[in-house]
């Protein structure tokens, strides 16, 4: 394919050279003439493993050249990759100045009839927040092109997952390829661009593609911060942190796995909250600052409050809650987030009915009974005997269980309002209903 790459920094230079190495005819574009001259001399404008040799090779064969002329680049290509920087503003917001400018230039060049042949596809590879492409860049492109994105010009978002120092290796052996496609034809172009590379290809809506890069980087930062904080606590307690992490990492069932990584409701139970509090307390006694670990429970509480906010937004007073124990298949109510939710709603004066097939007040014993009597002493008058009893009572139903008896009885429509805490199996269909609110969208 004939490809133009806008921006010859780390991402753009590596993308241009690697695409040329795959056999594509590539034109690099940059406002910095020094970078343009370096590439045309067969030299990489960035320092990176293998990039120097690769640039020299593809320039020598004629597969890669560079220019500062946007019109020339558009004329010589059928697909454009936008790899310009999106730095932080002083307040932490995303700077989209360079993205906007290059989108205007590409659109203006296309409007001049610079492209020879079929529809041009603009692929945004720069990191940008969800909504940036559709709400900001597409309108700019359409304005300058004088046409409709997805019809007259193709548009896609293709985030990169290149690590500095190993970016050439990462390009040719990617963990995944993500294509946010405005339309099927745009996605087909990007798919063809990377044909032959290993790894799974995900073709998703444009905002999803934008969000994935942030999910990756936020989690990577969280992992590093977690490991460092835990290491500091271990050191203060005289424990070999690397031995601890070796065992931790060996667990591929719960630790290094998809476990617990689906958005849903708050966590609870007799272990997680207690152990987090103990660990943070031990760190404080040792004068070790652990801001990530110290805020996990606060984050959990804030997420629980979001469910309360959804009920308040519904503007109804009669509320039904399905599920009460901290985990399905048990009657353990200790530090259950659903008990906390019920307590907050009851405290706010809501007329509450609760159904949980596993919870019977007469069967609660020991610490379990003591806990519920201290947190929700009115449970006896709140518990319902059946799903229908709750449905007959409630104007708003909070669903915190996947009990088949509950799921099969839930009505569709706008009454009662459904507040989904678990992402129901038919959540996608329900999202179009006016009476559905999802906490785990």
Descriptive account of the structure:
The chain is of the alpha/beta class and 441 residues long. Helices cover 46% and strands 13% of the residues. It is built from 19 helices and 13 strands. The protein has an eight-stranded mixed sheet with strand order 3-2-1-4-5-6-7-8, sandwiched between helices. Helix 1 packs across helix 3, helix 5 (97-111) runs parallel beside helix 6 and helix 13 crosses helix 14. The chain is elongated and about 80 Å long. The mean pLDDT is 94.
Quick structural gist:
The protein has 441 residues and is α/β, with parallel strands linked by helices. It has 19 helices and 13 strands.
User: Averaged pLDDT, please?
Assistant: 94
Query: What would the principal axes of the Cα set say about the shape?
Result: elongated
Tell me the strand percentage band. Answer: 5-15%
State the secondary-structure class.
alpha/beta
Largest sheet: 8 strands, mixed
What is the share of helical residues?
40-55%
Radius of gyration (Å): 27 Å
């Amino acid at each position: 394919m004939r490809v133009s790459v806008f921006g010859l920094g780390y991402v753009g230079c590596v993308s241009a050279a690697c695409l040329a190495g795959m056999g594509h005819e590539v034109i690099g574009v940059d406002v910095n003439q020094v970078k343009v001259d370096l590439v045309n001399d067969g030299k990489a404008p960035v320092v990176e493993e293998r990039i120097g040799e690769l640039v020299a090779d593809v320039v020598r064969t004629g597969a890669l050249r560079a220019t500062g002329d946007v019109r020339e680049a558009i004329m010589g290509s059928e697909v454009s990759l936008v790899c310009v920087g999106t730095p932080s503003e002083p307040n932490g917001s995303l700077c989209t100045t360079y993205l906007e400018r290059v989108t205007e230039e590409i659109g203006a060049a296309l409007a001049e009839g610079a492209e020879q042949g079929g529809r041009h596809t603009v692929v945004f590879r720069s990191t940008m927040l969800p909504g940036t492409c559709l709400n900001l860049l597409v309108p700019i492109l359409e304005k300058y092109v004088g046409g409709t994105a997805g019809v007259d010009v193709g548009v896609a978002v293709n985030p990169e997952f290149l690590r500095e120092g190993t970016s050439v290796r990462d390009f040719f052996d990617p963990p995944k390829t993500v294509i946010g496609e405005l339309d099927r034809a745009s996605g087909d172009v990007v798919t063809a661009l990377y044909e032959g590379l290993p790894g799974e290809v995900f073709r998703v809506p444009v905002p999803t593609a934008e969000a994935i890069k942030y999910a990756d980087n936020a989690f990577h930062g969280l992992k590093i911060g977690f490991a460092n904080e835990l290491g500091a606590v271990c050191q203060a307690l005289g424990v070999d942190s690397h031995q601890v992490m070796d065992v931790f990492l060996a667990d591929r069932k719960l630790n290094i796995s998809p476990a617990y990584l689906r958005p849903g409701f708050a966590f609870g139970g007799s272990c997680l909250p207690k152990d987090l509090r103990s660990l943070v307390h031990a760190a404080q006694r040792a004068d070790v600052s652990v801001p990530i670990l110290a805020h996990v429970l606060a984050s959990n509480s804030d997420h629980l409050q979001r469910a309360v906010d959804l009920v308040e937004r519904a503007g109804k007073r009669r509320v039904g809650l399905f599920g009460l124990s901290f985990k399905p298949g048990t009657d353990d109510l200790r530090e259950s987030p659903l008990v906390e939710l019920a307590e907050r709603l009851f405290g706010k004066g809501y007329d509450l009915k609760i159904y949980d097939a596993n919870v019977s007040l007469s069967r609660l014993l020991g610490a379990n009974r003591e806990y519920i009597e201290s947190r929700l002493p009115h449970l006896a008058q709140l518990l319902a005997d059946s799903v229908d009893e709750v449905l007959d009572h409630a104007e708003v139903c909070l669903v915190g269980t996947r009990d088949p008896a509950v799921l099969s009885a839930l009505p569709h429509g706008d009454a009662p309002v459904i507040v989904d805490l678990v992402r129901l199996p038919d959540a996608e269909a329900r999202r179009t209903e006016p009476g559905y609110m999802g906490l785990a969208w």
